[in-house]
Design goal:
Blueprint lengths: L5 E5 L2 E2 L6 H16 L7 E4 L1 H10 L1 H23 L2 E2 L5 E2 L1 E7 L10 E4 L3 H11 L2 H18 L13 H13 L9 H19 L7 H15 L3 H10 L7 E7 L10 E6 L11 E6 L5 H4 L5 E2 L2 H11 L3 H7 L3 H4 L1 H18 L3 E8 L2 E9 L4 H13 L5 H7 L6 H4 L2 E2 L1 H5 L2 E5 L1 E4 L2 E7 L2 H9 L4 E5 L7 H6 L2 E4 L7 H9 L2 E4 L4 E4 L4 E4 L2 E4 L3 E5 L4 E4 L4 E2 L5 H13 L3 E5 L3 H9 L5 E5 L7 H12 L3 H25 L4 E5 L13 H11 L3 H11 L11 H6 L1 H20 L5 E6 L5 H22 L6 E6 L2 H5 L1 H5 L4 E4 L1 H9 L10 H6 L16 H15 L4 E4 L7 H9 L4 E4 L4 H14 L2
Helix pairs in contact: 2-3, 4-5, 5-7, 6-7, 15-16, 15-22, 16-22, 22-37, 23-25, 24-25, 25-29, 26-27, 29-30, 36-37
The structure holds adenosine-5'-diphosphate and magnesium ion (2 copies).
The site of one magnesium ion has 5 residues, from loops.
Length: 907
């Protein structure tokens, strides 16, 4: 059987329907569906997306040949319904030629209106409607659109003005008018004449007169627009495959430009910004197509309440509003009522918020498009919960309606919209970590700590950050760096902290000595206010007020719903009581990774820590460890308190040692004084600690096995803290994790120290607490021998950052030199450090879980890499039967939603 390429719709009938969007595109499928459910839609037909692919295979001429018969037949059907004829002079049918892909790609491709006009037909139309202004307005629009889209008149250089716009401007100027609708018939005729001259001049061709020639030109131009630069870019951003293609819908024109009883507009069944269940939209009287969006004239509100709210914001009195800017509800009450009824009907039919386009022709309402509307994260959650409560969707659908990553928008503070309007943008950097922040500039981490202790809100401004800045970053409202990309230290750490950060703001000149930063000639001093939008990368001068995130209400209900369906638990990665508290508020049920090395950065501790690292022998180390013990115990108590009743998985020390020791002379002198040794000794030690590849060096349990006294001290701190809290009546659940195990014996030796030390403490305290000893699986060998390791280890936590690094053999620190090229050339589809590589690394995880549980069926397994908060990776973890994922506090809700979706999507 011959493949069906053309699907007709009209007069309450259609060959397509809503679920055929792959073939008909979203627009074509919904035009068909609207016909079927009794919404008034001008008749027409849709050429399938498959033809788009054929077009790119066999070319224009061949495609026109195979389509010709079907298109002519379908168009004849439209002629019958519209009682007019395409290309006819006395009774012409005009059509629009519209693009529409599977996924909505707003404004990316082209549409041509009023097709079928020429110098004779325009006169016929003028006579038929007795409305020459309308006929000529349509004609000049057509010549302009066709010229731009089909004949390539649109300038390629973005600085160049559209040649047609230039002509319109000059005619308006000559007449001394501002608005398009102030031009009369003679002006419009003049425009058409000059437009066609411009076409001839620029392309060397006459403007086509034949309606069919125009039609084929337009259809092929829509196919061409699938491959235009912005469409390609948009697809890349949204991950839409090029093979999908665009459909082309050809549809009888209805006219919003026939006078004051005609109009065109765009409306939403709910508020796309806030999610409020309130019909809203904008319209323009005596206008056509994109006029509303294009901002040629200021559109009016559709509803009275929308109009009143608009007037209030603009400071316009009700009296002036109702007389000068009436809503459609007031100006065209009957049509408004019909529109309102139909928008409700469409929402009820699709069970989701609709974004609709309509036209009113001489008092008659027509729908031209409907689709599920795009919305903000906040609206996404509110609409899903409202639809659930209104009985329009069930719980599972409500969960699937929310996109996990979009929750991020809700969790961070946001700028007050009104405050933003008056803010002055200084520059733009990379949107490294979302949220809004406002505060006083400081340039150094220790100043940040001092100022913050003084209850000041600060923004840490640096050329770049390093681990030593951690404490300062932790207390800052936001971080701004001149250098570094999306994976720079500042960016990664800030995202982990859920803190607003802009990196790579290259226009910024930081002068640490003068304590100033200069941006495009503006010089700011320490203490001056600055504001950051980490979601967009914009940097503002001065204070811009922010609002805290809203985590109750609909958001909380959604989260409860997640827990009802998910099997996978969500823990958090947290190194401080504060982070632990934040994560608990977001619903974390434990700590999946507490990194002890991050606890040493504060001033007193860092000295003792450095002493421990630089010590010449065991004695020296033990002395330094003795100083660290009370600090560590205190830190653990804080964390256990914050996570009372929940498991806390603490990783034993796993530091890149060289990062902790001072590399500058002043710091080295300080350490020499503190330890009573010479500076040259310190310098030598620092140099000897230098490793060529520290990622594969003296770290993890290699450290604990060469310096067992460190493991002993840390166990004392952990178990000691827990025992002391038990006395206070609390309920701590420590889990002690050995990092970087590759060989069973490495683990056994560490486990022995831990258990012996715990036993000693239990005796000292005369009481016991339950605790677990487990290991991180981050070395491929550990995954390969997981059954052996599970014979001793009580749980596995997959450290997928290192596991990815070692499975691929990519150094996380050096990947920047080739990763972008790999992504560009599609050697890698995604960055495996962000999205878990399920085929390789995932296989190791799946295998290790199976092997481990073969010897220890109750083996608890979790994941604690950055992947623990990435939705597709979370779903994978569900699939292979992990017990939990662990992620940074601000990603906890995202992981909870992804975990619930994984359960719901299962069969
Ligand atoms: P986009 O995908 O860019 O929104 P559309 O194909 O929806 O492009 O066309 C843009 C606008 O043109 C529509 O919103 C509508 O106002 C107008 N339009 C399209 N087809 C017709 C038609 N047959 N009659 C009247 N107006 C039309
Ligand atoms: Mg549209
Ligand atoms: Mg690791």
């Amino acid at each position: 059987m011959e493949k069906k390429r053309v699907y007709t719709f009209g007069n309450g009938e259609a060959e397509g329907k809503a679920d055929m969007r792959n073939l008909l595109g979203g627009k074509g499928a919904n035009l068909a569906e609207m016909n079927l459910i009794g919404v008034p839609v001008p008749p027409g037909f849709t050429i399938t997306t498959e033809v788009c692919n054929e077009y790119y295979e066999i070319g224009k001429e061949a495609v026109v040949k195979i389509l010709k018969e079907d298109v002519e037949k379908a168009l004849h059907g439209v002629e019958v319904l519209m009682r007019s004829k395409f290309g006819d002079v006395e009774n012409p049918l005009l059509v629009s030629v519209r693009s529409g892909a599977r996924a909505s790609m707003p404004g990316m491709m082209d549409t041509i209106l009023n097709l079928g006009l020429n110098d004779e037909v325009v006169e016929g139309l003028s006579r038929k409607t007795a409305n020459p202004r309308f006929a000529w307005d349509s004609y000049r629009r057509f010549v302009q659109m066709y010229g731009d889209v089909v004949l390539g008149m649109k300038p390629t250089n973005k600085e160049d003005i559209d040649p047609f716009e230039a002509i319109i401007e000059s005619v308006k100027e000559g007449k001394g008018v501002k608005l398009d609708n102030e031009l009369d018939v003679e002006d419009l005729k003049e425009l058409v004449k000059r437009f066609k001259l411009a076409v001839k001049e620029q392309t060397g061709q006459d403007f086509p007169v034949s309606a069919y020639e125009q039609l084929w030109g337009a259809i092929c131009a829509v196919f061409n627009s699938w491959m235009n630069e912005r469409a390609i870019l948009y697809r890349k951003m949204e991950g839409i495959p090029a093979e999908w293609g665009t459909a082309v819908s050809v549809q009888a024109m209805v006219f919003g430009n026939m006078g004051n009883n005609s109009a065109t507009g765009v409306c939403f069944s709910r508020d796309a910004g806030s999610g409020e269940d309130l019909f809203n939209g904008e319209y323009l009287i005596n206008a056509q197509g994109e006029d509303v969006v294009a901002g040629i004239r200021t559109p009016q509100q559709i509803t009275k309440i929308g109009s009143q709210r608009w007037a209030e914001r603009a400071g316009i009195s009700e009296e002036v509003r109702s007389s000068k800017y009436p809503s459609m509800e007031e100006a065209m009450p009957e049509i408004y009522n019909e529109l309102d009824k139909l928008q409700t009907k469409l929402e009820n039919h699709y069970h989701d918020m609709q974004d609709m386009e309509f036209t009113v022709q001489e008092g008659k309402l027509w729908f031209l498009q409907t689709r599920n509307g795009k919305r903000t994260g906040a609206a996404m959650v509110k609409i899903a919960m409202d639809l659930l409560h209104q009985g329009m969707i069930d719980e599972k659908t409500a969960l699937l309606r929310c996109e996990p990553n979009k929750l991020d928008e809700l969790l961070h503070p946001v700028f007050d919209k009104a405050a933003l309007k008056t803010a002055k943008t200084l520059t733009r950097g990379l949107p490294a970590s979302p949220g809004a922040a406002t505060g006083q500039i400081v340039f150094f981490a220790d100043d940040a700590a001092l100022w913050a202790a003084d209850s000041k809100k600060v923004i840490l401004v640096r050329i770049e950050t390093s681990p030593e800045d951690l404490a300062g970053m932790a207390v800052a409202e936001g971080i701004l760096t001149a250098r570094g990309g999306m994976t720079s230290h500042a960016a990664v750490v800030a995202r982990g902290m859920g803190k607003c950060c802009i990196s790579g703001a290259g226009a910024m000149n930081v002068d640490y000595k003068a304590r100033t930063v200069e941006i495009d000639g503006v010089v700011l001093n320490e203490g001056d206010f600055i504001s950051l939008n980490g979601t967009t990368g914009e940097v503002y001068q001065g204070k811009v007020n922010t609002k805290a995130a809203e985590v109750s209400g609909d958001f909380a209900q959604l989260m409860d719903l997640c827990d009802k369906y998910s099997r996978l638990k969500v823990r958090t990665n947290a190194d401080t009581p504060h982070d632990a508290m934040v994560a608990r508020q977001f619903g974390a049920v434990g700590i999946g990774l507490c990194r002890t090395e991050h606890m040493f950065f504060e001033s007193q501790k860092i000295v003792a820590m450095r002493e421990m690292i630089l010590a010449p022998d065991v004695e020296g180390r033990k002395k330094a460890l003795g100083k660290l013990l009370p600090y560590q115990k205190d830190d653990f108590k804080g964390i256990f308190r914050a996570m009372d009743g929940c498991p806390v998985n603490i990783r034993l020390l796993d530091p890149p040692l060289h990062e902790f020791v001072p590399h500058d002379e002043k710091g080295q002198q300080e350490m020499a004084d503190a330890m009573g040794v010479t500076v040259s000794y310190i310098r030598q030690r620092v140099e000897s600690l230098c490793e060529h590849n520290p990622m594969l060096g003296h770290r993890g349990c290699r450290l604990g096995n060469t310096y067992p006294e460190i493991t002993e001290m840390q166990t004392r701190a952990i178990i000691g803290a827990a025992l002391e809290l038990k006395k206070e009546g609390l309920d701590p659940h420590p889990e002690i994790m050995v990092p970087l195990t590759g060989i069973l014996y490495e683990f056994e030796a560490q486990e022995k120290i831990i258990r012996d030390t715990a036993a000693q403490l239990f005796e000292e305290f005369g009481t016991e607490i339950p605790f677990k000893v487990g290991t991180m699986i981050e070395i491929p060998r550990a995954a390969l021998t997981a059954d052996r390791i599970a014979s001793r280890a009580e749980y596995f936590s997959f450290g997928t950052n290192d596991l990815t690094q070692m499975t691929f053999g990519y150094s996380r620190d050096d990947i920047a030199s080739f990763l972008p090229v790999y992504l560009e050339k599609k050697i890698l589809k995604v960055d495996p450090f962000q999205v878990l590589d399920q085929k390789g690394v995932g296989q190791l995880i799946e295998m290790a879980v199976q092997k481990g549980r073969s010897v220890r069926p109750e083996l608890k397994c979790g994941i604690c890499g950055e992947h623990g908060g990435e939705p597709s990776s979370v779903k994978f973890c569900h699939k292979v039967g992990l017990n939990y994922v662990s992620c940074s506090p601000f990603r906890v809700p995202i992981a909870r939603l992804a975990a619930a979706q994984a359960a719901v999507e299962e069969k």
